[in-house]
Design a protein that fits this description.
The protein has 127 residues and is α+β, with helices and mostly antiparallel strands. 16% of the residues lie in helices and 28% in strands.
Length: 127
């Protein structure tokens, strides 16, 4: 199997064997395929840029060959720009400044400490 007018993609593969992945031009292309001792068959295929395909060469009932491209992996249609947006953690979108949240936490902790610091008065028993 070879790209028409180009490099050999696989050769001498037995039934159900696989070849290695090979870079081929994207877009419409034609592969030249032959069965051992047979004539070359031109098989047109459309390949998308940035994608990885497996090409299945299949025999038809009438003895001719066909190719079935199977998409293994596709690249991103758009190249990302900039960093990943990760937000601002637990304060994202709250609208409250972080400093106000810290001050509120300190007041709450300080108030709790003041309450627990003063024990309740004990009632004395009189004889």
């Amino acid at each position: 199997m070879a790209v028409a007018g180009g490099a050999t993609v696989a050769s001498r593969l037995a039934f159900a064997d696989t070849g290695a992945y090979v870079d081929v031009p994207a877009g419409p292309t034609t592969f030249q395929v032959s069965v051992a001792g047979g004539a070359l068959t031109a098989l047109p295929v459309e390949l998308t840029a940035g994608a990885v395909y497996s090409l299945l060469v299949l025999g038809r009932a009438d003895g001719t060959l066909t190719v079935q491209p199977v998409l293994d992996s596709a690249g991103s249609g758009v190249v990302p720009v900039g960093g990943v947006e990760a937000g601002a953690g637990g304060t994202a979108g709250s609208g409250v400044p972080v400093g106000a949240l810290v001050a509120l936490a300190l007041v709450t902790v300080g108030g709790a400490a003041a309450v627990t610091r003063h024990p309740r008065p004990r009632h004395l028993r009189r004889p």
